[in-house]
């Protein structure tokens, strides 16, 4: 009984010679079918290749030679076409009994009963089929099928090198493989985008499948396993691992797979059969993929993705190709696909070419999504298995408004999309007209509509949108895009430039909010332990106060950067008033230092806090004499109020911003601030949504700081609202809550002709 490794090795050894020979491609294929036929003791062995969208018989042993280059089958046609269409193996003792069987008289195949065929895959698409046939009606053994599959991998390389199937052929996909697909997800950033799919972690194209030196390949894979396990151990210890939750299961499964002896043994067996380390990993992965296809359990399917991830990671390590698509660079308009991303990873991409992002995880207030929103890049999240369904380079239409992605769209869909694109542009042009319109309500209340920013380039949007200034400048973004802690001088220059660009409009600088889902590799947790709950851990002001020099340097940079102008400083994650005092003291000391040295100082300094930790709301009275302004950070506030991780995709749509608990909480805060000379505003993402903004105005909020793209729609809303009207309505609903505040508010707005979509 032959083992898979032995059968495959016999074939691969011969194939190696065939491939190295200086004969032309056709002669090589003729030899290949002989070799395989002999090794598997098969009367027939045939190779079909994709040509002009059809599968053409290219070489055969056992069938009529006259049929070579004559017999052609469409993808999906007959057994061969079915294998190519489904990219699956068929193993039949009686071929004629299969529903897709088609008899081709010119081949003379009527005397053969059994049939086994495997797809020849390149760039995840079937470029051909390798088939064997027998007179006896018998199923092929597993080891024989495995040998065929291994051989098909090597054939894919031979076919590629001999340019028997060119790139154009791959692009001109047969209908079944290129069929359009619409996948639903969750709206994270609105907008439309069209581009080609790019994997954040690119799939490695295996160029050499046959090993020159089996021992060397074993060694390579051994070292790669070591390195991968090291990485996984490190990742599992990292606070920001698996941004987006499900930590426990993901971690456990990752670890389990990474250390699975069965997996490494199978890879080693594949190497023994004569494959390179890369090809062996891929071979085992293909095998697992095929087995898993038969299982429809979604939980197991998810675990399959984890294994795919690990397998890809192992191939990248073994081949030394570790970079992300950002490092390789985007070539044209691109739609980025990833399981999840960190904000810093997103910022590495070329903004001109990155048109959209599709995530398998993600949530509306995860920082990567906030960054994308600020960059004006639409994002659809929670798109299950998108990386399994889309191939690198596939054309995609991303609909951030409808929360779906269309893969390989048909011409009709492209046209419809383009029409919507044009309508959106018109809408944008309409919004541009609002640039100079002051956001004043029908009853004459001036609402401040400011914008959030974090990158130097964002600041230009102040004049584009006509925002009242920057209500939240996230200074940590400069830290996120730097490889090391930005020097004080660099920070100072940025702050000065931001104030220059804002041209006299107010800018509120928030001191660094590092930690949570914004971790910095160069700023390691000094407690010696990893945060289990990074969002509630050693982050933001907590970290800044304790990290010697960090806040001091930033204070100096801000004071110097705003020399001769008004400076607005806001502290994040203040949980108790003493934390505000401690932070302000750092600024006071720096101010004293600069004053003593007769440096030019800001003309005035206003200090404020973010209200994002619920405990602070209980000490509002104590804050009133300390601060000039308060900005409610609803992103964090809601995660703490609901005890629901803002980055966890499983909770992404569980709680509504328009919930009575949030509304009542905010109402208490506005009442607590009323009558004091303290400005109150909201700078969380919810303020950028019209329905939510309407509710906030009804609660008494008069300053919103929102994503730039929302400035015009919110201005338009403000101009259509009567504050007395909405305040009375909100008071009523808070006292007697309707079943769904969202629905009730929507109907209320609709009845008054206020657009809220
Ligand atoms: C917030 O928490 O609401 C906020 C605006 O800050 P960030 O999203 O940066 O945490
Ligand atoms: Mg926050």
The hetero compounds bound to this protein are: phosphoenolpyruvate, magnesium ion
Determine the N-to-C terminus distance.
Answer: 68 Å
> What is the 3D shape?
elongated
- State the helix count: 29
Structural class: alpha/beta
Q: Compute the CA-based radius of gyration.
A: 31 Å
Share of helix, binned: 40-55%
List unreliable stretches of 5+ residues: 238-247
Strand order of the largest sheet: 7-14-13-9-10-11-12-8
What is the average of the pLDDT values? 88
Q: Which range does the strand content fall in?
A: 15-25%
**Count of individual beta strands:** 22
- Can you summarize the main beta sheet? 8 strands, mixed
List keywords for this structure.
alpha/beta, 757 residues, eight-stranded mixed β-sheet, binds magnesium ion
Write up what this structure looks like:
The chain has 757 residues and is of the alpha/beta class. The longest helix is centred in the first third of the chain and has 24 residues, at 214-237. The strands form three sheets. The protein has an eight-stranded mixed beta sheet with strand order 7-14-13-9-10-11-12-8. Strand 10, helix 13 (343-347) and strand 11 (354-359) form a beta-alpha-beta unit. Bound molecules: phosphoenolpyruvate and magnesium ion. Magnesium ion binds at residues 572, 612, 633, 635-636.
């Amino acid at each position: 009984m032959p083992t898979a490794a032995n059968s495959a090795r016999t074939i691969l050894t011969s194939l190696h010679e065939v491939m190295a020979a200086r004969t032309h491609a056709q002669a090589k294929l003729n030899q290949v079918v002989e070799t395989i036929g002999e090794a598997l003791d098969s009367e027939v062995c045939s190779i079909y290749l994709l040509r002009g969208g059809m599968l053409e018989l290219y070489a055969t042993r056992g069938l009529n030679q006259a049929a070579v280059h004559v017999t052609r089958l469409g993808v999906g046609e007959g057994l061969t076409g079915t294998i190519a269409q489904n990219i699956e193996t068929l193993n039949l003792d009686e071929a004629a009994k299969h529903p897709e069987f088609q008899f081709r008289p010119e081949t003379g195949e009527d005397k053969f009963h059994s049939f086994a065929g495997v797809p020849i895959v390149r760039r995840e698409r079937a470029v051909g089929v390798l088939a064997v046939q027998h007179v006896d009606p018998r199923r092929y053994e597993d080891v024989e099928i495995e040998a065929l599959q291994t051989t098909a991998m090597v054939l894919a390389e031979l076919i590629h090198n001999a340019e028997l199937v060119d790139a154009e052929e791959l692009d001109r996909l047969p209908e079944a493989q290129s069929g359009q697909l619409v996948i639903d997800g969750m709206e994270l950033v609105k907008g439309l985008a069209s581009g080609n799919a790019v994997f954040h972690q690119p799939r490695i194209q295996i160029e050499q499948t046959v090993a020159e030196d089996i021992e060397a390949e074993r060694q390579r894979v051994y070292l790669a396993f070591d390195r991968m396990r090291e990485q996984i151990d490190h990742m599992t210890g990292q606070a920001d691992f698996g941004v987006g939750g499900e930590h426990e299961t993901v971690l456990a499964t990752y670890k389990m797979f990474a250390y699975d002896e069965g997996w490494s043994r199978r890879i080693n067996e594949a190497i023994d059969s004569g494959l390179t380390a890369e090809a062996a990993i891929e071979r085992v992965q293909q095998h697992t993929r095929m087995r898993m296809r038969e299982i429809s359990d979604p939980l197991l399917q998810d675990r399959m993705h984890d294994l795919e991830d690990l397998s890809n990671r192992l191939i990248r390590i073994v081949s030394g190709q570790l970079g992300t698509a950002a490092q390789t660079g985007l070539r044209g308009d691109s739609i980025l696909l990833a399981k999840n991303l960190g904000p810093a990873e997103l910022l590495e991409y070329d903004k001109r070419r990155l048109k959209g992002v599709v995530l398998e995880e993600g949530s509306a207030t995860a920082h990567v999504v906030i960054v994308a929103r600020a960059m004006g890049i639409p994002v659809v999240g929670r798109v299950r298995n998108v990386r399994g369904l889309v191939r690198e380079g596939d054309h995609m239409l991303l609909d951030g408004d409808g929360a779906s992605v269309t893969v390989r769209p048909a011409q009709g869909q492209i046209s419809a999309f383009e029409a919507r694109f044009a309508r959106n542009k018109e809408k944008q042009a309409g919004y541009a007209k609002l640039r100079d319109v002051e956001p004043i309500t029908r009853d004459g209340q001036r609402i401040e509509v400011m914008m959030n920013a974090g990158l130097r380039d964002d600041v230009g949007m102040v004049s584009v949108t006509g925002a009242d200034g920057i209500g939240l400048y996230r200074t940590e973004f400069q830290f996120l895009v730097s490889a090391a802690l930005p020097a004080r001088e660099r920070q100072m220059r940025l702050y000065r430039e931001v104030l220059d660009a804002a041209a006299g409009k107010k800018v509120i600088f928030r001191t660094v909010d590092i930690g949570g889902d914004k971790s910095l590799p160069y700023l390691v947790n000094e407690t010696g332990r990893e945060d289990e709950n990074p969002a509630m851990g050693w982050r933001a002001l907590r970290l800044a106060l304790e990290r010697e020099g960090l806040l001091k340097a930033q204070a100096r940079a801000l004071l110097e950067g705003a020399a001769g102008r008004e400076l607005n400083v806001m502290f994040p994650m203040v949980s108790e008033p003493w934390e505000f005092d401690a932070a302000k003291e750092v600024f006071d000391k720096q101010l004293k230092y600069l004053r003593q040295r007769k440096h030019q100082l800001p003309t005035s300094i206003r200090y404020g806090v973010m209200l994002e930790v619920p405990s602070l709301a209980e000490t509002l009275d104590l804050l009133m004499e300390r601060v000039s302004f308060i900005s409610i950070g609803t992103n964090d506030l809601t995660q703490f109020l609901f005890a629901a991780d803002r980055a966890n995709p499983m909770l992404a749509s569980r709680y509504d911003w328009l919930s009575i608990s949030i509304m009542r909480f905010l109402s208490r805060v506005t009442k607590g601030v009323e009558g004091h000379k303290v400005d109150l505003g909201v700078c969380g993402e919810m303020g950028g949504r019209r329905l939510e903004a309407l509710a906030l105005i009804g609660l008494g909020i008069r300053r919103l700081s929102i994503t730039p793209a929302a400035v015009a729609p919110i201005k338009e809303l403000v101009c259509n609202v009567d504050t007395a009207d909405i305040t009375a309505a909100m008071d009523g609903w808070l006292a007697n809550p309707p079943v769904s505040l969202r629905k009730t508010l929507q109907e209320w707005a609709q009845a008054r002709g206020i657009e809220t979509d």
